[in-house]
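Entry for the shared binder. Reason: the reviewer on the internal report wants the predicted structure included alongside the sequence.
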Amino acid sequence: MPVEPAPTPWSFGDPARFDARDDLVGVGADLAPGTLLAAYRQGLFPMPSGQRGDPMYWFCPVHRGVLPLDGVHVSRSLRRSMRSFEVRVDTAFEEVLDACADPRRPSGWIDGEIREAYLRLHDLGWAHSVETWREGRLVGGLYGVASGGLFAGESMFHRETDASKAALVALVDLLDDEHAADRLLDVQWSTPHLASLGVIEIGREEYLRRLARAVTTPLPAALDDSGLDRQGMETG
């Protein structure tokens, strides 16, 4: 089971008092495991400003991107493509993180501080990767943070067509269990690419209402560090 870290000394305030027009709701604090978990459980996530020496920025989007587990769009071509991938969970977390952080990618935001913070969360059992493999090569994947029934997606990458999409669909399958109605798959902001897969936008108030229920829901079995076999998941 995940190891609960020391509690954070920081307070993010009452989400009900956040500016209803601004996604940015906080500046500062740290990226200790306890701080990150407290933030996710309150609906916040961190992103660096991009300027060396600046404090961390914390966001709680006014319009939040979420993927309903019963609303994922899988085209025929994607379904065919998925049959060529092997999906694994948590077998190459650091490789997935580094692929997502590749500085050659446009709009890269994962810096060294973020990298180290999520490696610590992974070591404690809170951050997870869903990976797509072909012929023994890592070709795509995603990573995020799971707390109870919340999975907060952080980033994804692909080296082959449909590899990241296959990882996202596989994640939905992992979360789609007897507690699916209370789970929450958060993707932060919607994009046209994500919308094509079924991501929708909900208001901040609605997101926080769903979040309160999600974090009291049991962790999905596939993300429980209880010795489950991580390899060989079917995607077809």
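Summary line for the report: The domain at 65-223 is CATH 3.40.630.70 (Aminopeptidase).
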